[in-house]
Design goal:
With about 230 residues, this protein is mainly beta. It is built from 1 helix and 14 strands. The protein has one helix at about 185-190; strands at about 5-10, 25-30, 35-40, 55-60, 65-70, 75-80, 100-105, 115-120, 120-130, 140-145, 160-165, 175-180, 210-215, 220-225. The radius of gyration is 19 Å and the shape is globular. The two termini are about 30 Å apart.
């Protein structure tokens, strides 16, 4: 019996690429007519207010899991292989395509109150930035997986995107895993506010020394680690 072969990609992009002002040029050629070209507006990370629940195909550990082995890293998987970069555009001195979402794991063990609460558009979290990963390093913890070597498979079941949280888990702790926006524009829109002229901004949603920050939550689960790792 042949073993399955997997292909991993650090970045997947499909469709049009928006410019810095969230516009792109489209040309249409009709037989016998002049080439028709115009600029059109594109959706940006500043237009996103949530992720469809059907996009989340697996999260580990699962919600409510207990005695989870702390020697693994938490992860979440999406059906679309390009979802983490769907609203991204090159930014920074290296022009890197940073994911517009990341997975954060918050240690709730010693928190005095639930960091989750309702928002006009769903759920939000208020937590100190020390609990969150560095959004500038989110590109290190996002990738796509394909069954076989076809990186653009015709069968959607053969591909997925995965976010991994770099937080090292500890034994006997209560954790909250959340899919959060990495960009300030998505943070504003996801909380039901108008990002205005920050709609196309590539500023981070949080940074060092910021204290407590409030962010929209696009998916979450809770789990508890056990006393030790696996055998």
């Amino acid at each position: 019996m042949a073993l399955a072969t997997y292909t991993f990609a650090s970045l997947v992009r499909r469709g049009f690429q928006p410019s810095a002002d969230a516009r792109t040029s489209i040309s249409v050629q009709v037989s016998g007519q002049d080439l028709y070209t115009r600029d059109v507006d594109m959706l940006t990370a500043g237009d996103v207010t949530g992720i469809p629940a059907a996009q989340v195909i697996r999260s580990w550990p699962g919600d409510g899991a207990v005695n989870v082995e702390p020697n693994y890293l938490a992860l979440v998987e999406f059906d679309s292989p390009d979802l983490p970069w769907l609203f991204s555009r090159p930014s920074g001195p290296d022009e890197r395509m940073h994911p517009w979402v990341c997975l954060a794991v918050v240690d709730e063990t010693e928190l005095e109150e639930d960091p989750l609460s309702g928002s006009p558009l769903g759920t939000k979290i208020s937590v100190h930035v020390d609990q969150l990963p560095d959004p500038a390093e989110a590109w290190l913890w996002a990738h796509s997986q394909f069954l076989g070597t076809d990186t653009v498979p015709g069968d959607p079941s053969r591909s997925l995107a995965r976010l991994v949280c770099p937080r090292r888990l500890r034994a006997g702790r209560r954790y909250l895993a959340c899919v959060l926006p990495t960009l300030a524009s998505t943070r504003i829109a996801g909380l039901g506010e108008d990002p205005g002229d920050r709609r196309t901004s590539t500023d981070w949603a949080w940074g060092p020394g910021q204290g407590v920050v409030t962010l929209p939550v696009f998916h979450w689960s809770r789990f508890t680690t056990g006393p030790a790792g696996d055998f």
